[in-house]
């Protein structure tokens, strides 16, 4: 890309103009020697929007079932429903797990597509957790799970969300997005809902006042153009609803996955590529989506902290009992104590801010 073009593109977000898909793809394809201005522009834009603050959330994961009939080639988490290691939590077990970490602000609950689990069971889990811990925000279910439970219960998506809200549901996980390009989905997750349906379900949630996160799973078979389309699909949705709280790029962990094996992907994408995606995402979303989250589970804490220089303003959650990355061969642990989160942010010269799921900043004391 000629230097003049790069300069022009990087000025756009500061002038209130949006980068187009082709420009995002061109930035994502830049060779290492030409990336420094992109990194610097993303850092400057993040500073304009979020100052020196880096937020984090005190949460824990509860995977209420590990059994799944899905066929996602990037997944090492699922077991077959008939597998002897398959489990389904009862509402009481879910409450026990949620209570194990006093003081959490969020519980993140997702599970596999398990024919043995009904919508009523999920509602009972949420109602029990909400009843026991009413101040804890229930961030749960991907659009794929919403589709799965709606179909099995014979309900419209809107009706499913209404029932979930009655049970204490808080917000929608923006996972199952993977790459929002059907040609790529055909290879990596052929039985998952197509792009248009993913968008429709998230838009329905937003229309009902339910906020969601957003994600991308990258570093596998996709090309820069696919990532650019994905970013544009999310940005269009956000421009329409304003319901997305954050964007979380998730590098593919290939070690024990069918996709890694089939495509000969033996290592995770290099951290420099991850940093470039952070920077381009920051510039592409600009002020429409102010929160960009790194992933210490996938990158390790040191690289996650380093990513604050590339437009990132959120370190994510303490995530006690992170299982999905670990089963794919992730090597960076399952939990960080709140004190460790805050200390890591301070070491990077930033100001740690504890937040809730919806990005309200909290001034509750940090536990060690
Ligand atoms: S990613 Fe989710 S839907 Fe796909 S196979 Fe794994 S558990 Fe099932």
Task: Describe the largest sheet.
Answer: 4 strands, parallel
* Physical arrangement of strands within the biggest beta sheet: 2-3-4-5
Give the CA-CA distance, first to last residue. 48 Å
- Given the structure, what is the number of helices? 16
Overall number of structural domains: 1
Assembly annotation: single chain
Output the keywords:
alpha/beta, TIM Barrel, four-stranded parallel sheet, single chain, three-stranded parallel sheet, 368 residues, binds iron/sulfur cluster
Structure description:
The chain is of the alpha/beta class and 368 residues long. It has a single domain, classed as Aldolase class I (TIM Barrel), CATH 3.20.20.70. 43% of the residues lie in helices and 12% in strands. The strands form three sheets. The protein has a four-stranded parallel beta sheet with strand order 2-3-4-5, with helices on one face. A three-stranded parallel beta sheet has the order 8-1-9, with helices on one face. The chain has a two-stranded parallel sheet with strand order 6-7. Strand 6, helix 10 and strand 7 form a beta-alpha-beta unit. Helix 4 runs parallel beside helix 5 and helix 5 runs parallel beside helix 7. The longest helix has 18 residues. Iron/sulfur cluster (SF4) binds next to loops.
Please give a quick description of this structure:
The chain has 368 residues and is α/β, with parallel strands linked by helices.
């Amino acid at each position: 890309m000629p230097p003049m073009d790069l300069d022009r593109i990087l000025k756009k977000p500061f002038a209130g103009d949006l980068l187009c898909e082709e420009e995002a793809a061109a930035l994502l394809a830049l060779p290492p020697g030409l990336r420094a201005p992109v990194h610097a522009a993303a850092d400057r834009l993040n500073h304009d929007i979020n100052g020196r603050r880096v937020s984090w959330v005190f949460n824990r994961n509860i995977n209420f079932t590990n059994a799944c009939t899905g066929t996602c080639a990037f997944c090492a988490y699922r077991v077959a429903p008939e597998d002897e290691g398959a489990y389904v939590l009862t509402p009481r077990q879910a409450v026990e797990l949620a209570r194990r970490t006093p003081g959490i602000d969020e519980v993140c609950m997702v599970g596999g597509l398990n024919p043995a689990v009904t919508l009523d069971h999920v509602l009972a889990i949420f109602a029990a957790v909400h009843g026991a811990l009413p101040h804890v925000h229930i961030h749960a279910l991907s659009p794929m799970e919403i589709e799965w439970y709606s179909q099995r219960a014979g309900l419209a998506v809107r009706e499913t969300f209404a029932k979930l809200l009655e049970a204490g549901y808080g917000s929608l996980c923006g996972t199952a997005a993977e790459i929002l390009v059907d040609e790529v989905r055909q290879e990596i997750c052929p039985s998952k809902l197509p792009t248009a349906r993913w968008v429709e379900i998230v838009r329905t949630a937003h229309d009902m006042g339910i906020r969601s996160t957003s994600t991308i799973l990258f570093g596998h078979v996709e090309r820069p153009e696919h990532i650019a389309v994905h970013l544009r699909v999310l940005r269009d949705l956000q421009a329409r609803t304003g319901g997305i709280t954050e964007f979380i790029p998730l590098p593919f962990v290939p070690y024990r996955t069918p996709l890694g094996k089939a495509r000969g992907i033996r290592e995770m994408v290099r951290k420099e590529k991850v940093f470039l995606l952070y920077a381009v995402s920051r510039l592409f979303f600009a002020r429409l989506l102010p929160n960009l989250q790194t992933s210490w589970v996938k990158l390790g804490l040191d690289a996650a902290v380093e990513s604050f220089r590339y437009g990132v303003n959120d370190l994510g959650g303490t995530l006690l009992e992170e299982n999905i990355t670990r089963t794919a061969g992730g090597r960076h642990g399952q939990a960080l104590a709140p004190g460790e989160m805050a200390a890591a942010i301070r070491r990077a010269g930033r100001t740690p801010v504890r937040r809730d799921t919806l990005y309200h900043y909290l001034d509750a004391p940090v536990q060690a």
